[in-house]
Amino acid sequence: METVLDTRAIQEILPHRYPFLLVDRIVELTPGVRIVGVKQVTINEHFFQGHFPGAPVMPGVLILEAMAQVGAVYALQQLEGREDKLVLFSGIDNGRFRRPVVPGDTLRITVTPVRVGNRVQKMHGEAHVEGQLAAEADIMSVVAPR
């Protein structure tokens, strides 16, 4: 997988930082079509300390957040003056979790635009591990001043 945006480039677009930056790199970005991001899930993730001791599973809400962050990179790449804007998660529909995500997994997150405007965004996200669907959802967000 070729890297289109590395972690530093993503941090120039998103305000998220450790421990809440949940996308490591963007491997595909095709305006009007889709964006694909990658999250390497390691045992060192802070949330595994309590979710769950002895049986670590990535919380589903964080998988959705990772989708939202990949979608935010897509949205902000399309906007002028993006350094003065935030993409705020505003809703979710049709969220489903299909398999657990555990340490050692590589999440491949594909987000496709449904509606991308200057203020309101709707995208469909899917997270796969080794070709298996782990989670999917329709994600809504609004663009606000930073």
Q: What does it look like?
A:
There is one protein chain. Strands 1-2-4-5-6-3 form a six-stranded antiparallel sheet, covered by helices on one side. It starts with 6 loop residues before the first helix and ends with a strand. The protein has two helices and six strands. The protein has one domain (7-145): Hotdog Thioesterase (Thiol Ester Dehydrase, Chain A, Roll). A hairpin with a 3-residue loop joins strand 1 (25-30) and strand 2 (34-40). The protein has 146 residues and is of the alpha+beta class.
Task: Please provide a brief summary of the model.
By secondary structure, the chain is an alpha+beta fold. 18% of the residues lie in helices and 42% in strands.
Number of β-strand runs:
6
In terms of DSSP E residues, the strand content is 35-45%
Tally of structural domains: 1
In N-to-C order, the SSE pattern is HEEHEEEE
Shape category = globular
Unreliable spans? none
Broad structural category = alpha+beta
Trace the largest sheet across and list its strands. 1-2-4-5-6-3
By CATH reckoning, the class would read Alpha Beta
The CATH topology assignment is: Thiol Ester Dehydrase, Chain A
Radius of gyration: 14 Å
Average pLDDT taken over every residue: 95
- Number of alpha- plus pi-helical segments: 2
Biggest β-sheet, characterized? 6 strands, antiparallel
